[in-house]
Design brief:
elongated, 3 domains, 6 helices, two-stranded antiparallel ribbon, Dna Ligase, domain 1
Length: about 160
């Protein structure tokens, strides 16, 4: 390769870098892209039913809520009729795709349907129920045993 070919090759590289660079930097110049992103985000949130507030507006609303306590309910009078001693809590468990036995056990413990999430999860694992969980909504009662709950959520 001689001197002339090398210079022509270098000149071609310089010209191509200049052309590519000019297109690259000319596309980056938009009219304040951060404002466009913020406006798009606000529109998306509004479309899904959310309200967007600035920090100072949020703090004002928060102070208003603190200053005005909500005492709209009349004070409850003690009931003269005795409540049923066997009132059972009913919970509708919604199992969605991707949930594992740990997630279900934690949800049931949070809703006070079971006493110990780890123990319930261990029960599901040891008895093979954790691999047969079904998607859907299931009505569970607080007085159910682990076996009854497992049979309902596995539809077996």
């Amino acid at each position: 390769m001689n001197k002339r070919n090398t210079r022509a090759f270098a000149f071609g590289i310089i010209v191509s870098v200049c052309i590519i660079g000019s297109f690259y930097f000319s596309d980056m110049k938009e009219d304040n892209p951060e404002e466009l992103i913020i406006e798009n985000a606000k529109a998306l949130l509004a479309e899904h039913g959310y309200v967007v507030l600035k920090k100072d507006q949020f703090h004002e609303k928060e102070k208003e809520n603190i200053e005005e306590p909500k005492n709209t309910e009349p004070p409850k009078q003690p009931s003269s009729t005795p409540k049923s001693a066997e009132a059972v809590t009913v919970y509708t468990l919604e199992i969605i795709s991707g949930m594992v036995s740990h997630d279900i056990a934690v949800m049931l413990e949070k809703e006070e349907m079971i006493d110990d999430a780890v123990q319930f999860e261990t029960y599901l694992e040891e008895n093979g129920y954790s691999k047969r969980l079904q998607l859907g909504s299931f009505e569970l009662k607080a007085d159910m045993s682990y076996k009854q709950i497992a049979k309902i959520i596995t539809k077996s």
